[in-house]
Fold this protein.
Amino acid sequence: MQKPGRFMKKCIQLFFTIGIIAALPVVLSNCLANENDLISQNCVSGCTRLEGRLTTNSGSTGIANVKLTLTWSYRQMIGGITRTKAATTTDANGYYSINFLMRDDELGSGYYKIDYIVDKTEYLSFYPENSISLYNLKKDTLVTTNYLIPKKAFMKWNVVNQNQIQPSDYFSADVLSLMGYDGKEKSGAVLYWTNTSPSSSVIEVAGNQPLYVITYKTKGGVRTVKYDTITIPTRQTADYTFDFNK
């Protein structure tokens, strides 16, 4: 395995040898190294073990047969390394286990992540890349990480009495649901309206689990916050109305 320091030094030398502007695309492409270290998952001593479960439906249902790839990434301003460490698949109940050996140059630098592949037409995702980031891992340890991936549903929101929103007023809403690490992270859509913004649209939301709708309104200098909880079945579309006068 090539040490990050030596690797970065070669990249910087190439950067200044060819010329800063002309060389930039070449340097970036040549200094992003991809290394295969899948042999590390065959370790028998000093191993780091990652285990957990991928679930949906508020954590009640395991997601089976999900392909997982563990990588270690080290990045600097110019270039970096991505090292593939292990690969596995969740079992019939969504459980996974990854055993691998941490190399010396991985200790205290960079970070690990587990990339997972799910059907994006079925499962909710707010990011181009689906991954679970892991920091500060140590040799010969056990780390348990459970991860909630909601199924997808849709909300068609509508705003009424929108024409009464004045420049000094404020009207917005958060549509959130639990997901991510241990199913304790809240994430979702943030909506905001003026008297000229669109009055209706369809957004992707978490299905088969509670949606927390928080509406913020300032009207005539008076601020109010309204809380609501709804559940939309997977793959279904539900109407939801935001009324500026209520």
In short: Residues 4-148 form a domain with the Immunoglobulin-like fold (CATH 2.60.40.10). The chain has two domains: 4-148, 151-243.
